[in-house]
Amino acid sequence: MVVVMAPEATQEEIDAVVALVRSAGGDAFVSRGVSRTIVGLVGDVDDFEALNLGSRGGVLQVMRVSAPYKLVSRQHHPARSVIRVGGVPIGPDTLSVIAGPCAVETPEQTLEAVRMAKRAGACLLRGGAFKPRTSPYSYQGLGERGLRILAEVRQETGLPVVTEVIDPGSVDMVASYADMLQIGARNMQNFALLQAVGRAGRPVLLKRGFSATIEEWLSAAEYIAQRGNLDIVLCERGIRTFETATRNTLDISAVPVVQRLSHLPVIVDPSHSGGRRDLVVPLTRAAIAAGADGVIIDIHPEPKTALCDGDQALVESDVREIADAVTILSPLMGRTLTMPVRAGALPARAA
């Protein structure tokens, strides 16, 4: 069961609902989005119905939700959500391009990659300072030094920063630099991390796990929402199948399926799904045609020297193709290509 608070509901009214639910032996989790506040209830539904919560001050609606992922479900919020990252909208009416280097290596490499990203139509900067890899001998990222480079490049280019966080203990540090926190595929079911980013006051980009079902993916998003954060963007990045011709198999059907089940935006990662530079542009076109709300793409000025995933990084000629694809296909899908918003200071985190 969920309680939808009115837009004008006061904190005192929200606290009163939470206190009433807990007095009946249940628990309540307050989740705040850009335009609404939801209180998710845990416990006996019959006990909650006896509380007559719909009559409480500030309550707009009380709903039963049968889906296991209640807060991110369209059952209680039929309209699809728009999530804003540093002023940049991601949602059903726009197409948002997130691009940059898979891994931050040097200030020069990162800045040039982001300049290329802007030429491709990017409105958000992606870059990895922490790189959890299959092999412990692979490049693991620059850590906080990489975060500082991303912050400097944001000042130079105006693009808000999307970067990965890999453990609960570093969430506050990464959030102090980033406009959006990314949860990678390997951490999709790291529940302690999901709860930590849910409390961090930053929008979250949640990638689908290698072998995760759609229900498991949405349930992972629910962990974030339950801890107070509804500003979540889902990313389909390919799943592991028997096929070996590509790095992963892009589940393009996940885009319309998830959009039917959840109000959260859904974007596609054509770089990690295909794993090859020559597949990124075709998969980008497919993602846009399937109705994705955006794409996240790897770009590198010198892919042959890249310390991470150079085989899938785009070069300048590909950048022009991506720019053409997003410019031409966006209006055909009834969308506006999201333009960069000059980033100022890092926005304050939500309370």
UniProtKB/TrEMBL annotation:
Ranges for domain DAHP synthase ferredoxin-like: 1-66
GO biological process: aromatic amino acid family biosynthetic process
Molecular function as annotated in GO: aldehyde-lyase activity; transferase activity
Keywords recorded for this protein, A-Z: Transferase
Residue stretches making up the DAHP synthetase I/KDSA domain: 87-323
InterPro entries named in the record: Aldolase_TIM (IPR013785), Class-I_DAHP_synthase (IPR052899), DAHP1/KDSA (IPR006218), DAHP_snth_FXD (IPR041071), DAHP_syn_2 (IPR006268)
Classification via NCBIfam families: DAHP_synth_Bsub, PRK08673.1, PRK12595.1
Protein name: 3-deoxy-7-phosphoheptulonate synthase
Organism expressing this protein natively: Streptomyces inusitatus
Lineage, highest ranks first: Bacteria, Bacillati, Actinomycetota, Actinomycetes, Kitasatosporales
